[in-house]
Structure formats: C-alpha cells, structure tokens
C-alpha cells in the first residue's frame, strides 16, 4: 500500500507569480522575489518560489494565451523553459540553474504545469520517452482545457501514458523542483457528460511523483474541487483548490468562509484544502494587458487581516500573490506575524464554532495546547459580537499583542466593518 | 430579410452510407448504391445519395476514428476526398466526378462534414482562402467534438471565419454537391458551461450556403436538438436531428414517438425535424470492426412497418441506412409503398391524436384532402384499439390496399405485437 | 375519441379581478366592471368578466391569504361564494344571480378555482356528492399548493374523485359559469420529485367540463407551463400560462418575447398559450395591503402599445387587469383598436421572423389574406430597423392609420425607446 | 455560546421498532424487546429501546398510514400515545409508565416524532401552551411531509413557535424520554424550490432539548442528509441519516460504503453520521400489510457480518431492526462480538484506506492504541486482496479470534463472496 510523500506535513508557504505577472514572468523577476523572500520572509517559514503557467511559451508577456503558439519542447515531447525569458535555461539546462540558485538561498522551487501532453507534440507526432510510442498514441483527443490551448489530456489506458508522466517528473526532479502545481485538473466534475481524463491523470501524476526520486508537493488547480471527491483528493494530492481563482473582492472572501466550513474536516498533515493565493500587496503588473492594470490590492486593511486570519485558522497553504519587492510596511507586517503563522503551521482541531449570516467564529488549539478563537465581522458596517468564556479567562490578541482579562468570562467585541480578531485564550488554571 | 433556400420543400428522401459502412465507404460502394436507387427507387421519389463521415481520411476502413491521422487537405485548409478510397478524386478533382455520375443517373449527391477547421491545419498553421489569415487565426481552440478528433470549431468573431466557410461551400458547389449533413452541431446544449461555438457556426454555414451559388439541403447532426432552439433551427437549417443516433432497438423506437409528439408543430416546408436514418435491410458491413458485424435489421417485420408509418405520418426525412443492393423483397416493399410515401411528401396538419402508454394514434390530411389515421400498438403483445369515426365511413388500408366499411363509425382493431396500421378515411359524402 | 369543447375557437377577451383587487373583490366591483365592458368594450369583442381567487373566503380583503380561515362550503364539500362579499349568493344561490346579470348585459361570466378539495372539508371529513365517499377519502394528503393553504389535491385513483370534480362543474354550470381559471395546476413540473397530482387533475377537470352540460373555457395557471407538455395541454385545456405572473416590468416584457418564440407553433383554435393578464390602467387598489398601493401601470406608453402588439400578433388571450372604470382615454384607446384586435382574433400563420438581441419582427396573415408585420425595438433607447419588402409595397400603420409607400421595397424605421409598430402590407398587385 | 448535550458521547446502541413492526407496534411488543435487551444485550452496551412512528394513531396496525385518521392529542396540541395500543398511557400518563419500566431494566427509552404540529390541531384550531396562540397561528401551511399526512411544519417566525417545541420536549422529559428520533427533517434539500421549514426546525428542536431539563439524544431522519450541511447538522444534532431507508439489499450495502467514505471526517463525539437500522434477524412482522411479509433478513451470513464490520469501523450508531426475541444464535452472535463493538464505541482515526471498485479497506486505532484493519470483498464471487504490513506484524481476527503471523509483512487474503474480515494488528515492538 503506497503512501503519499512527506513533502507537505505542514501547509506550504511561498510566493507564486500569477497574481503579479500572469503568464509572462521572467527569470529576473522570479529571482528578485526569491531574494526578497530570503532576506525578509524565510525566517518566518516562507520557502516556496513558484513559477506559474506558460514558462515554455516564448512570446507570452501577460495574461493572454497565444492560441497555438510554438512552444519550447524537448525531444521526448516535454515542455521546457523558453530561453528568451529564462536565459539560464539555454543549452537544455531547463530550470536546473534557477532551482540551484533558489536552493542556494535556502528556499525551495516550484513550477506550474497543465495536465496532459502538448497538442503541438501530438500534431507533429513527436516521440515520447518510450521507444515506439509517439505523442499521438497517448493523447486523449477530446480532453481539452476549456481556457488554455496548450495540451491534450493523456489517455490513462494507452501504453506509454504512465511512462510519459514518469518522464516528466524525472525531468523535474533532475532540475531540482520541489513543488508542482498541476492545472486543469482539480475540478474533476467540470464536464460531467464528457469522458474527461482528469481524475485518472491525478492518479498517474501521484505515481510519477512517487517514482521520481525527489520529494515534491503536489498542488491541484483550479477549483472548485468537488467535496464528494475529498477522499480521492486526499489519497493522491497534497493540496487542492476549493474555489475558482480567488481575487481581491469582498464577495469572494465571503464565499471562502462557506467553503472553509464545508472542507475543514479534511485538513490534515499532507492534505491541505487550498484557499488559493493571497492577493495582497501590488498586483497585476503586466502593463501590456488591457485587462490588467498594476494596482494595490482592493481589500481594505481590515479585509487583508481577515484574509490572513481565515487562511491561518483554517490552515490553508499560504502563497503570496503580490510582487514581493514592492511590499509596503503594512503588507510586510501581514505576512510576518509569527504567532499567527504558527497557527497556520502547527495548530490542531481547527473548526468553525459559529456560522451565522455576516459573522463567524473559528477556533483551534495551538501547538502549546492553548485554545485560540477568531471572531469575524463580515458586515460592511460595525457589529458587536458576544461570546462566553470561563470566569477568569484572559485573551491575548495575536495582532495587538495586548491581553484583556474577562473576570466573568463574557466577551463583548466591537468590530469595525469587515474587521476580525484572533485571540489566544489564557485559562485561569493555566495562568496560575 | 434573407430566406432559406428552396432545396427541401418536401422531406428529403435518399440513402446514407453510415449505417452500412461507417467511416470506411469507398467510391465503388457509393456508386453501386446509386445505381440501385436509379433502377429501383428513383421512380418513388428517392433521390439523394449521401457519403457520410471521414471521406478525407485515407486509412479509415470501418467505424473507428484514427485519432490524429493525416487527412487529405487542399492548399486552403479544406478537406478533400482521399484518392485511395475515391479514385476519381485524384488530381484535385474532389467529389466532382462522382457527383457528375450521380447526376447523370437523375439523382442528387450529398456529403457529410464536421463543423470547424481541421486541427491538422491549425497545428501546421496552413493558409485559408483569405490572404494573411491562417488556420490558426480562425480556430476556437477549446471547441472540440467529444467523439471525433478531426476538427476545431471556427471562432465566429475571427476575421476570415465566414470567408473560410464560404470557401468550403463554394468548393462543394463546384463539385456539384446538393446536400450537406453537418455534424457535431445540432445538439447546441451539449456543453452548457462551455463557450461552444456551434450555434453561431450554424448561422455561418447558412450564410455560406446562401452565397455559394447552388441550392443545397442543410442537415444538422447529431441530436438531441434542443426543443427550446426550434426557432433558431428553423431559421437556419432544412433538417435537424431530434435524437442521438437511431438504431434498430425497440426502446429507441418507443422514444421516437415521444420525440415526434414534442416536435410535430415545427414540421413545415423547408423545416424538417429528423427521425434519423432508417436502419432497415442489411447493416454494419464493416467486417474489420470488432464492434460491428454484418447483420439484418433487428426490428421485426411489424416494427419495420411501424418505423415507416411513423416516419411518414410525421413527415420525417427518409434516409435509408442499409446496403441497398442487398435488399430482399420485403425490405424493398417497405420503401416502395407509393401511397405511404405520398403521406410523407405531401400531407398536411400531421399530428398526434392519442398519446397513451403503449399506444398512439396519428392523423393528417393527404394531398387530396382525405383524412388519414395511423394506429400504433407499442406493446410487445397483441392489443385491441378502438376509435370512433362517422357513420358510414370506410377505411382504406395503405398496406393491404383493402377497404373496410364502418356502418356505425366504430372501429375495433386487433393489432399484433408492435403492429401498426394506416388508413385513408373515405367519408360517406366523398364516396357518393 | 372525445374532442374538446368549442368554447374558445378564438382567444378569449375579457376582464379579470386579480390585478386590481387581489383576493378581495366584491359583487359591486365585479358588476361595475361588467357594466363598463357592456358600455364601452363589448362592441370590440370583449366579453368575459372573471372573478379571481378566494371568493369563498369571507375575510379576504386584499392579496393576503388568511391561512386556514373558515371557508364557505356547501353540503358536498364544494366552496361557494361568501355572502358578505357577494350578497346575491345568499340563500344558496351561489354565483347564479351574478351570472344572470352579466349574461343580461350580453357578456359571459368566469370564476377562478384552485385544483383540489378544501382542506377544511378533509379535516372535518364532510360528505361528497358520492354516497359513502367523504372528503378525506379522495384527498391527496401530500399534494398541496406552495403558496395558498386552501386545498389538497384530489387523488385521481380514489373512487369518487372524478365524481367530485363532476359535481363541481355541474354546480358551476347551474350557476351559468362560462369560463373557469384553474390555479396551481399548469406548472406540472413544479415539484419534480413529488407525487404531484396536477397532471391527472387536468384530465379529470377536462372530463368534468365535457360532462357538465355547458360550454366552458378551461384556463390553466400559473406558468411556466412546461414546453415538453404542450401536447398534453393542447389535448385538455383551452389556454395555459407560459410564464409566472406577468406584471408591469420591462424585464418581464422582454422575457415574454422569448416565450412567444418558444410556444408560437402551438397556437391554434381552441388552444391558446397565454401571455397572462394585461397590467394596464389602474392597478392594485387594495389599500389595506402593505405590499400593494393603488397606482397606474409602470409601463411607458410605448411599452403599453408593445404589450398590445405582441399579445395580438401572438394571438394570446386578452384579459384586462386594471380597474376598467378608472381607464383614461389613452388606456381605453389601447383596447379598442379594432384592426389590432382583429389580428388577435382572426389572423393565421403567426410567427417570429427576426429574433435578435433587443429587436424582434413578427408576421402573420390577416383574415383578408394580407401580410401583417410588427417591428419591435426592445432597447431603452432609439434604434433603426431595416427590412426588405417588394418593390411598390405600401404599409398601413394599424395605430396611426397612415399609409406609406415603399417604391423600392426598402423600409427603414426609426423607433423610439421600447417602441413598436404594426403594419398591414399592401402589395402592388392587390392595390391595383 | 451554547454547546450540545452530552447524551451521545459514543454512538448510541439500541433497538428500534420500525423494521419489525412498522407503524403498528404495541406496548407488549416494546416491553418484550426491552426485556430481551436487558437479559442478553445490556452487558454488551446495548441500551436504547426506541418506539418508532405513529404511536399516537389508534388504528395503525402495520406500515400503512391512514390518511387523516383521528390522532390522540392533549389540550396543548401535543400528540400522546394511543391508549388502545399502549394501555399504560391511559389517564394522561403518556409514555411515563413505559419509560419507568424500561429505566428499571437499566435501559433507556426513545421515541419517534415527525417535525411540526398536527394538521388536526391546525384545522380544529386548538390551543398551544402559549395563551392566545392557537395551532393555526404557528403552522406553515405549505410545509408538509411528502409521505405522511400527520403534520404541518412549524413556522419558525411565528410567535409561540419555539414555545410549542419547548412544550413538546418538556412533556417528553416528564415522561422520561432519553432519545428522540425526529423524522421528515434531515433531508433539508428535499424540496429546493420550496420554502421548507425543516432546517430552522432543527434549530428550534435543539433549543427545546437544551431547555427541557433532561439529556436527550437527537437523531434526524430520513436521509440523505446533504453533505454540504454537515456543519449545521453537527452543530444541532447527535446523529443524522446519510441515506434513505436502509434495507437488506446488496446494492444498498454497496452504496453505504460510498456514503461512509464521504462522511467519515464528520464522525466525532456527539456527532454521528448514521448508517441506519440494522435489518438483521426477523423482519416485517406486520402480517396484515400486503407489502410486508414476516421473513428473515435477505442478507447472506457474509453480508450480515459485513454490515456489522462496516457500521463499527465507521462508528455508526447501532440500532437493531429485527424482532429481538426471535433472534437465532447466529444473529445474536453478530451483535455480541465484544471486540467489534468496542471498535464502534471507542476507536479513533477511523477512515478508508482503499476505495476501489468492489473492494474496500478501512482502518482505525482501537482504544488501546492498536491499529485495526478491515478488508471487504464487495464482489459476489471470491476475490484475493493483498496488503503490506511491516515485517513481523501479526493479525488478530476479531471474529475467529485467531492470530496469524506475517513474517515478511505481506498479507494475502482469500475472501469469499461479499466476505469481510477485521484484524487487530500486533506490531512486533508491541508484542515484545
């Protein structure tokens, strides 16, 4: 009986290029963010630097996909980084040199891929690693991504299919990849009437990682992953998206509370339902894209803290989406609250206690055995929340670092619009 | 305001190669069936000889699609007949010589196409008829057929898209094509959450036919076409499938009664909801295909007549699916009942009168103004049906050609398992 | 084979009390509207005066239903008019005296009922017309209306069920009822997973009308009636609602165009898909109801004409919903356009020709064989519509009564926001 | 912040009358089963004796509901036991005397109710416990059970609604009730388009139990409870049904594996997703019911063990459905396997490990910290299952009580049709 790897015993923390650079990131940008992480964040547990979609597409500059563009591909139908965007990849070295630099910073390196085999390989009918098996022979011709033109699904019943995935992950292992975000794969109910290959491709990828000789986090996108498939997802992946792409919109944040409530029982070591990237700081820097315009997050400061509080109380992976080097002090403070990050990394029994219209309360036990409570006002106006603790309890605020005694155990919180608070509970007996 | 063509003022009658030859028909088979039609059927109104799917695929031999096979294509990304299967197409003459021969028999010629542009054209990025517009520029990369790998949908918003369809139908007009069955297009609700281009491709094809300089029947497949889209279908096509593929199964026949009941109000000159091919006679001759095995229709003789009776009372197109040259006398008699075929071609006010579990009654007015009634026993055992006509009416049976008087107007019919009967009503006053 | 009655060979035209009085109308109000109809509208074809819901509920005063109120009921579990609201009903005379007065005006009388048997009869277990069969024995205990508390559905399999419906319609025939609007019955897909009795109750009611000895229009509510059930509805009813309640909102009017496009093939003598009441003039007079407030229709004058134009081009029943006696001149002019009303009553081949976003064109043939075209601008701003007629055609405007010649057949119409125009086409040859 | 009671810290174990007596159980039958439990089962942890539906209906004799029968009701519109069936209830003593006898046996007593207020109370408009509030004023007239005619839902917004539920549970507390199975309430998505009151009635019932002064288990029926509502169910109830009624059919058992896989993360103290009654032994004794016929369970012996193994590995409540006094030795042995019952009551980390077509493996940790594995062959023929343990592990079979050593850790199990096995794992280090 095969077990999953040990790559994600705690929720992965890192940076991902999508929210700031879309499909057009380059080597310099990637390394600049890595350097920032080494200097300012590593000490807090942040470690993954993840290069998102289409690093194999030479002409990608923003979020637009160039349908049927010529992609950089090796002799076994495997996509490789475009050297004009990632100069160190020249000479067939792939992401090896970049991974090496990032490892030298004490960090880990991740990449994004789309499930499947390049359509260009299939139509050129190029070889795969298996002698006699060409790309055409393992492609599932009707299994395509509804929003990106690069790949066909892989037919799990075709001889050579598993070997192709094995060859991909051996290549990534050679490069030194530590984290793979696989896309067009988590929403396995997307095309219910279609013979969609995604579910079995998850299984092939799990197998390929087990065989590749390197510990790698497997992250699945996009959501919504179907709750009914929780056991399958837990069996085969380290993290998976509960929602479609999360951006800095109040309604999306409200919806995330409902999703966390549905999925929280599936949070466990190695298995992390994923709230998606943190759209904080400076976003969407791809100036040539008419749909994107560089800007600060649209969330208010209260909402930014609420994002961090919910992600951590739920134990979501934390993947920062903004351009790190442009962080202001407030943004940096959000992701360097050591007490809060410890909740994300090491708490247990995390669960909602109250789920009412426009308010929520979550609780967990921190690594020292203390109860922790988070109170959320989801209204766009002020609201008073009450809660009963025990006589003599005291509350330590994880943001203000102030302690408040509750002689009679009764808490009455005046919360501003969209404000939230997280407290460690100091029980009388513990304090004695 | 543009009207549709006059190509199908009555329901088209003909022969189609799919039910007997799948994707593998060749020139000799096609012409042998045409010759039979000329000799035995033309006099009854049968006229279309239609070559079904994948005539451009050199290696097709049965119903199997060879995923990503090399297709025969001209310099403007248009598919052309494979000369190894259609020798007269050699030298770039396409279907011209075959159409010419069929026209010389006094018949008409039809072909099958899939909506869209060949994927091979897109990935090779070959030219289209519009200077500067390549295949890649007009393809819809996410719009693919769920059961066949040949095409991408055409993006209706791309410059050059309409011109591409125009170039296709001008080519077909040059060849002398009279009938085009377009596939992967009628079930426009197939992928409801997907940006599927089929609906607007129907409109582009309608426009291309109007511009091509030749009268052509436009037939859409496969069904189920959505009832809610009836007005759109009537506006743009001559016939469209109400169901998925119809084969010789009792349950499918039962279901067709329900479909006819839903669609009958949309039957009108130029607009023919389609019950699909007649799976009669000898079927599935593609011996190399493990899924097919040459055989006679599975329908009983009663059911075979019921098929003909329903198709004609509803005024469906009549497309024979068996290998014509292998017809026995009974099969030939089914499709040469002149009185019944006249109902199909020239009756009016066709409608269900009774729709009850396991029985049905349909009526219409024939071209001479007589009432016609058809009685269907859908049980697999005998059943008695009763009906009230007027005193002194008489019934002329369209199959037995016998007349029965009804002195008191009361009809009591003993029908065998799955049997049906069609009567012309002779009213007393008319007989005087 | 039983045919439906001849009560609605043309679309019924009349007045209904719901839009102005909700559930609280009284005898004086009903008769005042009848008198207005006699004096001002009868000459144009208006004839039905219909008393809507809950005339058997003594305390009803507006649109509110008093859950479980005591209802007026006779000895056979049949509801009868509340004498405090309809004084002439005292002494067990029911609606007889009112019907008599309305008939004396040369008009016809209609009532509203809910399918089923009163819950109060079931729980009191009162007798029905069948000896030995009590209300309890024919009720379907789980078949209830989702918005009104008065009735249980009738179990079609219970002995005495049909007899109960027969007894209802014999009573209505005795009263002199000409039109019955049956509610909670047309949307037969409302509770798909429930053993809902509505479909078979339609059949029982059809039978009861056939047996009652009086010609009565059967009108079914509320919609949306399912398009898939068109044949069943046509077999058993004279009119049925295509939509939920129609009120004076632009979006509802836009939606009605789509519904007419779906249903138009089912319009035929005796069978009238129903666009619902005309919410014109003065509406919602029930002052004690906090949700209603007496007011003029919210439709602009253009929209009011558009409502009349669409209803008539489609051949919908016309049931005026406003308080007739409060009509101003404009409102009266809307419903006394004789040429337009003749389209509603006597045209043929009515159908959409153009269905595009924010515009529509409908056509039909009037009773003299002239083509009629209606052009609709559905935008909330001005729009130009073009259309090609034949050289030398002329257009007669049914509202302005002006004629415009089209020397070259080309029509260019400047239409204001939400404006529509209806023209009779005068062909050159006809004019000669 | 209110917490749930402590009534079900382990999964409730008991007997329920439905599977053997339907709606017609009587006092003697109930007490005979209680006596059996005291004598043969109590020592193994079985304790609840639950009287299922319609104890308030004097004429109930089997599974048929007599629509609108006269029910026994007290002066505050509360249903009480029918004295002809439960003689000790005479004189207004309700279930008090029975509860007292059962308590005297060292057991606990439970009853079944339907959410809502009797329809007979509503139509008679009888008082409730709140002065001035009658039954009619708190009923939700459109909220009815789709399969039983007794009740209306309670309108949660009506003054007096909570007080009515409070009065019910105070009465049950007075009687000495320890367990309440509330029906027509768990499948809160049953009527999605309907203003169904069930969800908020769950909340009212939770509140009423908190206020009633007695610890009571709250069990919700029928399923399928919606997985999306897991948090709501856990907040308000002790157990809830994952499925519709479970009977002794192989397909239903197969389906239960899938349900357990979906729900297992929600199993926790006080919160028990419920596999439903155990249809074992002798069932359906209601001889007057044509649909039921006294019989032994249809499950094979292998399947009967599989039921017990799955229910216990999942930690479902265990409610025996057969007539206890007719148990044969095999049946008794099924429910007195002390080691297996301890898994049900005291294990942790229960979860599926393998979920494949026609086989399953579940694991948990027993109260002594040993790993436990259950292997299920779901095929109707023999099957070999393999699994890898550690070198030197040994397996203790919970049914045969034999121990098998696995020198190299490899287990190969030959399982008969539908057979399952449960093993406690003895790790080498533990054995030392």
What's the count of strands of chain A? 21
Segments of chain A where pLDDT lies below 50 for 5+ residues?
A: 190-195
Number of H/I helices of chain A:
13
Assembly category: homotetramer
> What number of domains of chain A?
2
User: Mind telling me the CATH class of the largest domain in chain A?
Assistant: Alpha Beta
CATH homologous superfamily of the largest domain in chain A, by name?
Aldolase class I
What proportion of the residues of chain A form beta strands (DSSP E)? 15-25%
Q: Compute the gyration radius of chain A: what is it? A: 22 Å
Query: Under CATH, the topology of the largest domain in chain A is which?
Result: TIM Barrel
What order do the strands of the largest sheet of chain A run in, or round the barrel if closed?
10-9-8-7-3-2-1-13
The chain pair with the largest interface is: C-D, 22 and 23 residues
Spell out the blueprint of helices and strands:
The structure is a homotetramer of 432-residue chains.
Chain A: E1 13-16, H1 18-21, H2 27-41, E2 48-51, H3 96-104, E3 108-114, E4 117-118, H4 119-124, H5 135-138, E5 139-144, E6 151-154, H6 161-175, E7 179-183, H7 198-211, E8 217-220, H8 230-236, E9 239-241, H9 250-263, E10 272-274, E11 282-283, E12 295-296, H10 301-314, E13 318-320, H11 329-334, H12 338-346, E14 348-356, E15 359-365, E16 371-377, E17 383-388, E18 394-397, E19 403-405, E20 410-415, E21 420-426, H13 428-431
Parallel strand pairs in A: 1-2, 1-13, 2-3, 3-7, 7-8, 8-9, 9-10
Antiparallel strand pairs in A: 4-6, 5-6, 11-12, 14-15, 15-16, 16-21, 17-20, 18-19, 18-21
Helix pairs in contact in A: 6-7, 9-10, 10-12
